[in-house]
Amino acid sequence: MADNWNDKIIAEFHANAGKVGGPFAGKDLLLLTSTGAKSGLPRTNPLAFIRDGDRVVIIASKAGAPTNPDWYYNLLANPEATVEIGTERFRATATPITSGPERDRLYAAMVSVMPGFADYEKNTTRVIPVVVLELEKV
């Protein structure tokens, strides 16, 4: 189910220069391609993001599920990834931030743009990790 949902969003992203409709209409969305921690295969996920200076920030919310999303574990195993924003492609290095004032500031910044992230935090007992992506144009 999730793969089919993601596949449709990825196809729409590619067909419309990075813009998609539905729940993501008007929001910043990127495609993160990480290397599967177990499989070693490329895995692409559409994710909401915000900018923090030159950095891009994504949130490992999994909609408030009790576990982190698979892509988060992929980045822990291999922090090198590819990011697509609009029609641009970047090499990315991921740095997780799991606690402290910077994590809280960045999470609050995401909530200010996409208030649903506040609900995700309320729906789980885990501290939802923030991931900072340092981008380099391909």
From TrEMBL:
Molecular function in Gene Ontology: coenzyme F420 binding; oxidoreductase activity
SUPFAM superfamilies registered for this protein in UniProt: FMN-binding split barrel
One GO cellular component term: plasma membrane
Chain segments annotated as transmembrane: none
Parts forming coiled coils: none
Catalytic reaction(s) noted: oxidized coenzyme F420-(gamma-L-Glu)(n) + a quinol + H(+) = reduced coenzyme F420-(gamma-L-Glu)(n) + a quinone
Top-level taxonomic group: Bacteria
Cross-referenced Pfam families: F420H2_quin_red
Family listed: Belongs to the F420H(2)-dependent quinone reductase family.
The protein, known as: Nitroreductase family deazaflavin-dependent oxidoreductase
Source species of the chain: Nocardia arthritidis
Organism phylogeny: Bacteria, Bacillati, Actinomycetota, Actinomycetes, Mycobacteriales
